[in-house]
């Protein structure tokens, strides 16, 4: 696979390891999980046994501390196999990255533990009236002595019904709007914390998506990440990183759609001629392959920027925008080429197409990405 750089021998070995895992644990159940909407915990446990339950956890707490390039490689492989499973397993990265950014040594030691032991983490930012506008968060955190008391409702929380650890964003000062947002670590067993409605989704059905309810949830003041008012900054920094991972998954989805379509075209005869001999199909495949590789280069360029500690916020938004739109288009083109068969449940492309639709919506809609990109351009930061 040609890139502006190549994987290290260690990354190639890890890629083989992930592909072996996929063949053993994900491929055999992908269709069943899509039908019943529940990913067995045994998959996460097996992922944990591979040492991959929390990719960014630092070595000092027993984690693998993988760089962004390696994380992107893993998420691309998982996205290729099943985007729902990739979303479920990838939820730990978004949750844990916030702790990595702002957690003190004691917080990291205590709260990376459950994730490394094979439990899910969840990132609880979105609310019924605060989706793209994170500053409109209405969940509150009131300081009472050595505790905070949290009240509010979150929605569309990935792995929210099965997580052991939550990063919850709540307002500690409503008068300050977005600048009054703070981030907290909340454990699953806290009284008053519960999962509400479980969403019955069109795609990514292996992932658990729920409403999260906080009713007078008391947590120690030591569970505040950073300082009061740091929440918006931490959310945006976490999402910058998360958008690269979503884009990597999108590349995996697009590659799967392309591969499914190529195999169909190779074996299809239309009007007495192999479909592969018809330029209308062949040229479309060429365009699809070019788009997939362009997206891949954007992902790994962004990963290199992040690992080099260079500004990458604008690039992350551009990558998420391009790759997710590209994945939806490639899946759609594949279904068009495959015709009526592609629309049936017998064709895996039908599932790929349903899964792909979420990509432009979660972790910041593509309209939000355009706002980020345009803002950077017009401010002249270029970042």
Automatic annotation (TrEMBL):
Residue stretches making up the Acyl-CoA dehydrogenase/oxidase C-terminal domain: 229-377
Keywords: FAD, Flavoprotein, Oxidoreductase
Gene name tied to this protein: mmgC_5
Protein name listed in UniProt: Acyl-CoA dehydrogenase
Gene3D superfamilies named in the record: Acyl-CoA dehydrogenase/oxidase, N-terminal domain, Butyryl-CoA Dehydrogenase, subunit A, domain 2, Butyryl-CoA Dehydrogenase, subunit A, domain 3
Matches recorded under InterPro entries: Acyl-CoA_DH_CS, Acyl-CoA_Oxase/DH_mid-dom, Acyl-CoA_Oxase/DH_mid-dom_sf, AcylCo_DH-like_C, AcylCo_DH/oxidase_C, AcylCoA_DH/ox_N, AcylCoA_DH/ox_N_sf, AcylCoA_DH/oxidase_NM_dom_sf
Domain Acyl-CoA dehydrogenase/oxidase N-terminal, residue spans: 8-118
Signal sequence residues: none
